[in-house]
Amino acid sequence: MNETNPQNLVAKTWTGPLEPPQSISSAADVVIIGGGIIGVSTAWFLAKQGIDVVVCEKGHIAGEQSGRNWGWVRQQGRDTREMPMIVESMRIWRGLEDEIGEDVGYTEHGVFYAATTDEQMNEYAQRIDVADEFGVGTRMIDANELAKHVPGGTGNWKGALYTASDGRAEPHKATSAIARAAVSKGAKILTSTAVRGIETAAGQVSSVVTEHGAIKTSTVLCAAGAWTSMFCRSLGITVPQLKVRGTVARTAPSASVLDGNLYDDRIGIRRRQDGGYTVALGTYLDHPITPSTFRFGLKYLRAFLMDMESVRVSIGREFTEEWSAPKTWSLDAESPFEKTRVLDPKPNQSVLKSIRHNVDNVFPQLAGVEIVESWAGMIETTPDIIPVIEQTESLRGFHIATGFNGHGFGIGPGAGKAIAGLLSGNDSGIDLKEFRLSRFFDGTLIRPQAGV
Ligand SMILES: Cc1cc2nc3c(=O)[nH]c(=O)nc-3n(C[C@H](O)[C@H](O)[C@H](O)COP(=O)(O)OP(=O)(O)OC[C@H]3O[C@@H](n4cnc5c(N)ncnc54)[C@H](O)[C@@H]3O)c2cc1C
Known about the structure:
The structure is a single chain. The chain has helices at residues 37-48, 65-68, 83-100, 118-125, 128-133, 143-149, 171-184, 228-233, 291-296, 301-306, 317-324, 336-339, 349-362, 408-424, and strands spanning 30-33, 53-56, 72-73, 111-115, 138-142, 159-163, 167-168, 188-190, 195-201, 204-210, 213-216, 219-222, 242-251, 261-263, 268-271, 277-280, 285-288, 311-314, 371-381, 388-391, 398-402. It is of the alpha/beta class. The strands form five sheets. Strands 5-6-4-14-15-16-13-19 form an eight-stranded mixed β-sheet. Helix 1 runs parallel beside helix 7 (171-184) and helix 3 packs across helix 14 (408-424). It is globular. The protein binds flavin-adenine dinucleotide. Flavin-adenine dinucleotide binds next to helix 1, helix 2, strand 13, strand 19 and helix 14.
């Protein structure tokens, strides 16, 4: 391993303390469960308002999805309901490095959804109306224009859906940098600190119980990513959530074959700040069947039909693991969150082989380039592929922000601002009503518009 080409960036996302905290706060205005991009961005915006906030993370900052994603920051191809939040998020990303004084690798070189058939060209063209409504500048380009942007590609493309103002950032840097920015504004970040549960008084949150003791508070945000459904279930709150596993690889620095982010049926690829590429298969996600698949499956029917080509269903040890996991637990003994400090699924080896094959074929100049690191991440999905953000109706003071599906990294800072507004009562200007949890239970038509 050398410094310019380290082999474990995914495992090294946080340069703060990894050991349990010496002490925890006895009280806070707000306690956030989860140190992913959603939790720390919310903490940053709260701390900027002078609110006393503590983030509890069972493992390390960005240890799960927020440090394992592709690094795409995109407006293109989004659900209409997410557009106001992502537009605001882009504004924040553009000024982020100046504001926090840290490098997060943010740059805008466009996103391309490359089409290999006329049908795909037509399908992508339908996305332009939504983008126009929000002034995003998404347009269709032909094969000649695409070739100028992607000189090293031999994908037989007809053209692409293209948004020049879309970008990327480095997941192993961004969330930790935002966490440090939050700390500099007064937030407390506790790593190796699992939250076991909540104590209540007269239907109102009264404290958060961590493995190191309780923190008195009347306001909690559960931003626990893939763990949210389990955590909420222990409180009697049902959050439909299914997980899909994405396998990703990172190459050594190599020839410049494109400068933006490109996606097609075979490959999802973006240039990295270190001169390498983050690559995955364009359309491949594993869904390990669990009891939740049966519990929530019907609600996911439309999402499944939309993403049918991408999702491969299998059954393995995940079924028995979830089956035998406790639904509730005592708050003064080890909880499931301490047992899995960092959810670190194994990458799918056959997907890694296909990634190798597709990189070599679609980008011949990269043929044989060393794959320096590979990993997987569990993406949490909702039935309509947009998040849940709300103050719950059944437990006063308890809030949920989850279900960012496969596109929560880019929207993270904007979501953090909106959620901080919800928690503090200071209007962020972003309407959250489309994200209420009750939409899954009150007869609202579940309408996914965009894939994971
Ligand atoms: C392979 C892959 C590719 C992706 N590509 C992209 C992309 O290119 N662009 C994009 O925008 N998005 C992408 N995403 C999605 C994006 O990464 C997520 O939507 C986003 O990171 C979610 O952030 P989060 O903070 O909600 O969750 P997470 O980052 O998962 O954070 C949740 C945290 O909560 C902690 N936690 C859970 N329970 C407890 C507890 N009881 N006590 C204390 N801590 C707890 C966990 O340890 C975890 O660190 C991708 C995701 C994956 C996995």
